[in-house]
Design brief:
Elements lengths: L24 H35 L3 H37 L1
Length: 100
């Protein structure tokens, strides 16, 4: 039975991000940056509202309201972490994908 040899054509392929390939890339970066800013501002607003709900629930002896306030504080912190670390996370996973 004859063996087939397949040439290693795929070994020389190299693709990198191109920041000048499409028009509007800079505007898209500006829009993404504005979205991150809006996300961080909303996270701060959620933190303030959740802290007020937590304090109101604690001082009125309402454990359900206090628990909801605590959950809101944690969600606001998580949102701020994801918004702040999104660029680093995407770059990290890009580098992991390039190493595969």
């Amino acid at each position: 039975m004859p063996t087939l040899t397949i040439p290693a054509v795929y070994a020389g392929i190299s693709v990198t991000p191109n920041s000048t390939g499409l028009p509007g890339i800079e505007q898209l970066r500006t829009i993404v940056g504005a979205g991150m800013t809006i996300g961080l501002i909303l996270a701060v607003l959620a933190l303030i509202i959740s802290a007020v709900v937590w304090a109101f629930g604690s001082h009125s002896s309402n454990p359900h309201l206090a628990g909801r306030g605590k959950t809101g504080v944690l969600v606001a912190f998580g949102t701020a972490i994801v918004c702040g670390a999104s660029v680093a996370l995407v770059n990290f996973f890009w580098n992991v994908g390039q190493a595969v």
